[in-house]
Amino acid sequence: MAEFKFSCPQCSQHIQCDTGYVGMQINCPTCKQAIIVPQAPRSATAPPAMPTPPPVSRPSAAAPPSLATRQTTAAPAVGQRFAGASGGQPPVKKSGGLLKMLLIVAVTLIGATGGFFGVTYALKHVGGGKSKANPAAQVSAPSADAAVHALSILTKVHGAYTNVTSVRADGTVTLFLDLSNITVADVNPNQSANAKNAARHPPGMPRIVTNTTELSIKRAQTNLYYMAMEAVSKVDRMTMTNTFAFWKSDKGQFMFTDSHQKMIPPSYRQMTDSNSTNSQPEQIKKIQEMFADPANLTKIIKDLGQTEDESVNGQDCYTLTAKVLGQKVKVWVGKTTYLIPQWQITLGGQISDADIDDAFSLYESAFTNMPPPALEMIKTQVKKFAPVMMKIRGTITSTSRNVEVNPTLAADDFNYDVPPGVRLVRMPAATSRGNQLEINQRNACINNLRQIDAAKQQWALENGKKSTDTPAEDDIKPYVGKPDANGNQSFPKCPAGGKYTIGRMDQMPTCSVPGHVLSQ
């Protein structure tokens, strides 16, 4: 499919995507607002793009800092490009599709491990399945003792995080992806294996992708948050540095980005607060709540057991290993604090269709901002490219430092130090989904009142009525709207449940809902 660019109507961010997404609802990678992908121009072609890592949604206060920041490591994905990202070689269209699928699988894995730590009390229900993973991400079935010890440790981890109301931490998230084993035949499964150049690496697809992100987070029960990141990405020989900051203080909700390029100035924006159930923060919250159900955990976590003790930054730790969607997931747990200073995902495991079906059956209940047909399309594409995943080598590692649980945080702690000289751009107020529903209902009701008033006038004209006369509903019903297929005439109803008062001929009809008023 051809790729094209369009601008987010909320923040003007340039977004690149396939024409296959036209008409679908997505979230802007910058402002996180739900938008509809517009029609592509006729001359849409694949522009040069080697995007920078996407920004991170804010973590939940109840989440351990190391795991809560995991999305900073998602592989760069064609179709979500920040303004100012350095251009590389024009990607081949088929390669772009594969990179999208790699990102989808990575995000699915990372999202799955998000529930891994938050609901440890429920993991007693998780059984171990027979491993089918590729040796690069092999997880052996644990012994009975190892499984029991793992559950005991995780119960204590859950206790350590149960009463978290605020958190402050620094951390480093690293990603390494080796895509050099992928061939043209892999990204185009319908092509004959004997086709010309089928065994060569796809032109435009990088071989090695690395990302190191230094971050600092703060989160409070008051719904204030702070996340600042410095990300350095290297795609083969091309290096990109980006600074991101997202924070919500008593002054509002803000975003700062800097691609560190001479011709592109930093961006400093005040964002509109989004309380919609389909907003990105609410979607993340739903995903976390989803893993509170033990039945959901059993679908994605296999072969959970305790492994050899290790240390992280001089801290003695237990280690727990499991298989999640065919990939090896390892978690380090402090022996004294029972906090999680580090976790790691090893890629290269085999993902079965059953694994994918189980994962998407969970996410269908969480991603309410994505139409079911769009999710089904993504699932189909993930299955199509799942065999390629075992040819990928790589790791995603998150390590936390300076973790403080329940620190006292003042309002000023949530303000980011924006460099001097950067101008603040205030975003226009966005209408929430709830407010839009109220507006639509009010407009529909006022239109009903107009029809009722017109019917009154017609009834009075045909029947010689005076201004002091008051018609009944049955009197004016024949003059309102059109009859149904059976010839029955219905009377308009307020979509918000209000009650209409027809009134005298010299009065306007009214509705009992405040604001539903027909002007003179």
Overview in brief:
The protein is α+β, with helices and mostly antiparallel strands. It contains ten helices and 18 strands.
Describe the structure.
This protein is α+β, with helices and mostly antiparallel strands and 520 residues long. The protein folds into 2 domains: 3-426, no CATH class; 433-511, Pantoate--beta-alanine Ligase, Chain: A,domain 2. Helix content is 26%, strand content 26%. The chain contains 10 helices and 18 strands. It has helices at residues 65-68, 93-118, 144-162, 184-187, 280-290, 294-300, 353-363, 372-389, 433-463, 473-476; strands at residues 3-7, 14-18, 25-27, 34-36, 166-178, 208-220, 225-235, 238-249, 252-258, 267-271, 301-312, 315-324, 327-334, 342-347, 393-405, 424-426, 500-501, 510-511. α2 crosses α5, α2 (93-118) crosses α8 and α7 packs antiparallel against α8. It is elongated, with a radius of gyration of 28 Å.
